[in-house]
Design brief:
30 strands, eight-stranded mixed beta sheet, alpha/beta, about 25% strand, about 30% helix, binds ligand 6R9, 20 helices, GMP Synthetase, Chain A, domain 3
Length: about 650
C-alpha cells in the first residue's frame, strides 16, 4: 500500500501537524473551559461571554449551555465582519443545474445586500425574533440569503429538503408552527424540474391559514397563485439593502432541523447561536485545512446538516469562498463534479461515499479528462466509506496527493466529531480515525453499559462530556431529547452508532445500532417507512429493515402483510412504492418489497427484526434461536420468498 502519512510539505503549511494535533488535543481534554474559552474568541461577540460551559447530562435535568452570557449575531459574523477586508471577495460561487447556464459569483458585499433585502421582506411579512421560518428551496443563492436573513433578524429557520413530499413539509411547518414558508416556483435538478410551489400549496392545505408563502422565482415556470402567496422578487427589488443585525443570546436558537430517529416521527433538532458557530467555523478550518483564498466545495444540499455547517455557516464565518451546487453528480454526465472542480479551481472537495461509488462505476475517463490540479483536500461524510471507493477517490481523483478526511458526525453534533486531519494523520481507508479537539469518545458494552477500555475493542459509541456544537434540545420536547440521547447510557451522549477501536486506537464506525438506516447517506427511520406503508388501505402490517446495497450503502427492504382478501401483485407493489414516495419523498421508496403472510414475532408480539435483517441480507444460515417465536413457521416462508438473492 502507498504511504498514507502526510507529506512533509503539506504538513509544513497545514494549520496543524501530527505533533500539534497531539498537543492541542491533550490540552483540550485537560482543561475544556480554558480551551473553548479561547476558541470562543474566533467569532465576534457584541457582549463578550464570561461563562464558557454549563453542562449537565443527568437524566431529568439535562442542560447544555455554552458561552451563555455572551451576545452576538450569527449573520454579522458570516458577513459584516468581513466587509472591511473582503467586500469584493467572492463569498458564494453558485453553479446551476445546467452547465450551459451561467454560474454566479456573489461577493461578500452582495451577500450582505441580498441578505438584508430578504430580512426586510420577511420583516414586512411580520417575522420577528424567535419566529420560525420554513425553507423549501432549490440549491439557489436565495437559500443562503434566507438562512442568513433569519439569523440576522433572530428568526429560527427550519429547512425542509426539496425532495420531501407535501405531507412531510406540512408536518414540519406544523411541528415548529412556522409563520412563513419560503419556496420557489420549481427546482431544477438533473435536468428535471420539481414542482416546489405546487407541493407547498398542497402542504399548506393542512396548515393554519395564517401561514404565508414567499415564492422565489427560479425557472419562471407557470405556477398557480393563491391569496397567501407573496412574490419575493417583486418585493426584493424594492427592499432596502440594510438591516441592523439583532443582538442574540449565545443560547438563542439559530435553527431547527428535522431528522429521523429510531422511533416515531422525525424530531426537530435545535441548534443555538454562539457555540454552534464557533464549532462549525473551527472544524471547517482544521478538518479541511482551509486557508484564506481557497475555493471550497461541499456538494451537500442545504436541506441536510452538512449544508448548514459546511456550505453556509462554517465557511462564511471563516470568510471563505464556498461553492453552492444546484445539480447532481451525473448530469449531464458523470464528469460534472470534476468539470465544476476544474471550472472554479476547487481546492477542497467534500462529498458523500454514495456519490463516489456511483461515479467510480462510470469509469475513470470522466475524471481524467478534467484538470483537478487545484485540489488539495478531499472529504467524505454521511456513511462509512468502503476501502475500494476510498482508494479510487484517493488514486483517481486525488492522484495520491490529496489527504482524504472521512468525517464522522451527525445532525445532532453540529460539526465533525471524528475525522483525520490533513497534515497530521496517517490515513486508514474507511476509518474516521481520531476525535476532533475537545471530543472524548468512549466505547461501551451494549448490554452492561460498562466502558470498554484499551484497544482492539468493539461496542456502542458514546461521547463523554459536551462540545459547543452539540444540539440543545428537541424542539418542543425536551423529554424526548433526554430519553433519546441520555437515558440508555447514563452520563454519556449516546450516538446511536456502533464502532470499533483498533489496535492503534483509531475509530471505525460500524453503522447504526438502532432502527435507523442510512440510504445514500440520508438517515431514514424504519418506523417512518413502516408507518407510511400501514397508512395504505390494503396494508395490514409492515416491517422495514436495511440491507447492503452496492451504491446506496443500504437499501430499504420492506416486509408487507396485506389486509385479508387483498392479493399480492406487481401492480400493488408499484402502487406501494408510489405511495411511500408521496407520503415521505423519493428517498424513502422501498428498494425491495416482500409479501409476508406473517412476520416473526415473539409471544409478546414484538417483531424480531434481527431475523428480518438476516433474511434481507440473504444470510439466513445463522438465524440464531427462533424457538421463542410465536409461530416459527413464518420464517420458512420468508426465506423461501426472499427478494435479495446473491
Ligand atoms: C453528517 C450526517 C448521521 C449518521 C451517523 C452515522 C452516519 C455520518 C459518517 C457516518 C460512518 C462517517 N455517518 N458520517 N458513518 N462514517 N464518516 O451525516 O448527519 O444525516 O444526521 O447522519 O450518519 O451512522 O450516526 P446525519
Amino acid at each position: 500500500m502507498s504511504d498514507l502519512s502526510p507529506s512533509p510539505e503539506f504538513a509544513k503549511n497545514a494549520h496543524i501537524d501530527a505533533e500539534g494535533y497531539a498537543k492541542t488535543y491533550a490540552a483540550s481534554i485537560a482543561d475544556p473551559a480554558a480551551f473553548w474559552g479561547n476558541e470562543g474568541k474566533r467569532i465576534d461577540w457584541i457582549k463578550p461571554f464570561t461563562e464558557v460551559k454549563d453542562v449537565d447530562y443527568t437524566l431529568g435535568q439535562v442542560k447544555i449551555n455554552w458561552y451563555a452570557d455572551g451576545t452576538l449575531n450569527v449573520a454579522a459574523n458570516c458577513i459584516d465582519r468581513h466587509l472591511a477586508t473582503r467586500a469584493n471577495q467572492t463569498a458564494i460561487i453558485w453553479e446551476p443545474d445546467s452547465p450551459t447556464d451561467e454560474a454566479k459569483h456573489i461577493t461578500y458585499q452582495e451577500l450582505h445586500d441580498n441578505t438584508c433585502r430578504m430580512a426586510n421582506v420577511l420583516a414586512d411579512l411580520g417575522v420577528t425574533k424567535g419566529d420560525r421560518v420554513v425553507l423549501y428551496l432549490p440549491m439557489i443563492p436565495e437559500a443562503a440569503y434566507a438562512m442568513l436573513a433569519c439569523a440576522r433578524m433572530g428568526a429560527i429557520h427550519s429547512i425542509v429538503f426539496a425532495g420531501f413530499s407535501p405531507d412531510a413539509l406540512a408536518s414540519r411547518i406544523n411541528g415548529c408552527e412556522a409563520k412563513v414558508v419560503i419556496t420557489a416556483d420549481e427546482a431544477p435538478r438533473g435536468g428535471r424540474n420539481t414542482a416546489l410551489k405546487s407541493n407547498t400549496d398542497k402542504a399548506l392545505e393542512s396548515c393554519d391559514a395564517s401561514v404565508k408563502s414567499l415564492v422565489v422565482k427560479r425557472t419562471g415556470g407557470d405556477v398557480a397563485w393563491t391569496d397567501r402567496d407573496v412574490d419575493y422578487n417583486a418585493l426584493a427589488a424594492k427592499a432596502d439593502t440594510t438591516f441592523a443585525p439583532v443582538e442574540m443570546g449565545a443560547e438563542d436558537p439559530l435553527f431547527i432541523l428535522y431528522t429521523s430517529g429510531s422511533t416515531g416521527q422525525p424530531k426537530g433538532v435545535v441548534h443555538t447561536s454562539g457555540g454552534y458557530l464557533v464549532y462549525a467555523a473551527m472544524t471547517h478550518q482544521y478538518t479541511f485545512d482551509y486557508h484564506d483564498g481557497d475555493v471550497y466545495w461541499c456538494t451537500a444540499d442545504v436541506g441536510w446538516v452538512t449544508g448548514h455547517s459546511y456550505i453556509v455557516y462554517g465557511p462564511l464565518a471563516n470568510g471563505a469562498t464556498t461553492v453552492m451546487f444546484e445539480g447532481v453528480p451525473t448530469y449531464p454526465d458523470a464528469s460534472r463534479f470534476w468539470q465544476v472542480c476544474e471550472k472554479h479551481s476547487v481546492n477542497q472537495f467534500y462529498t458523500a461515499p454514495t456519490a463516489i461509488r456511483a461515479l467510480m462505476g462510470q469509469g475513470n475517463e470522466f475524471v481524467e479528462k478534467c484538470d483537478l490540479s487545484a485540489l488539495k483536500v478531499l472529504g467524505t461524510v454521511g456513511e462509512p466509506i468502503n476501502p475500494e471507493a476510498w482508494n479510487w477517490y484517493n488514486d483517481v481523483v486525488g492522484k495520491g496527493t490529496c489527504p482524504i478526511v472521512d468525517t464522522w458526525w451527525q445532525t445532532e453534533t453540529g460539526g465533525h466529531l471524528m475525522t483525520p486531519m490533513p497534515g497530521a494523520t496517517t490515513l486508514k481507508p474507511g476509518s474516521a480515525q481520531q476525535p476532533f479537539f475537545g471530543i472524548e469518545p468512549a466505547v461501551l458494552d451494549a448490554t452492561s453499559g460498562e466502558e470498554i477500555h484499551g484497544n482492539d475493542v468493539e461496542g456502542v459509541l458514546v461521547i463523554k462530556d459536551s462540545w459547543p456544537g452539540q444540539m440543545r434540545t428537541v424542539w418542543g420536547d425536551h423529554e424526548r431529547f433526554e430519553k433519546t440521547y441520555f437515558s440508555d447510557y447514563k452520563g454519556y451522549y449516546f450516538t446511536g452508532d456502533g464502532c470499533r477501536r483498533d489496535a492503534d486506537g483509531d475509530y471505525w464506525i460500524t453503522g447504526r445500532v438502532d432502527d435507523v438506516i442510512n440510504v445514500s447517506g440520508h438517515r431514514m427511520g424504519t418506523a417512518e417507512v413502516e408507518s407510511a406503508l400501514v397508512a395504505h388501505a390494503k396494508v395490514a402490517e409492515s416491517a422495514v429493515v436495511g440491507y447492503p446495497h452496492d451504491i446506496k450503502g443500504q437499501g430499504i427492504y420492506a416486509y408487507v402483510t396485506l389486509m385479508t382478501g387483498e392479493e399480492p401483485s406487481d401492480a400493488l407493489r408499484k402502487e406501494l412504492e408510489t405511495w411511500v414516495r408521496s407520503e415521505i419523498g423519493p428517498i424513502a421508496k422501498p428498494d425491495l418489497i416482500q409479501w409476508a403472510p406473517g412476520l416473526p414475532k415473539t409471544r409478546s408480539g414484538k417483531i424480531m427484526r434481527r431475523i428480518l435483517r438476516k433474511i434481507a441480507e440473504d444470510d439466513f444460515a445463522t438465524l440464531g434461536d427462533t424457538s421463542t417465536l410465536a409461530d416459527p413457521s413464518v420464517v420458512d416462508d420468508l426465506i423461501e420468498n426472499r427478494m435479495n438473492r446473491k
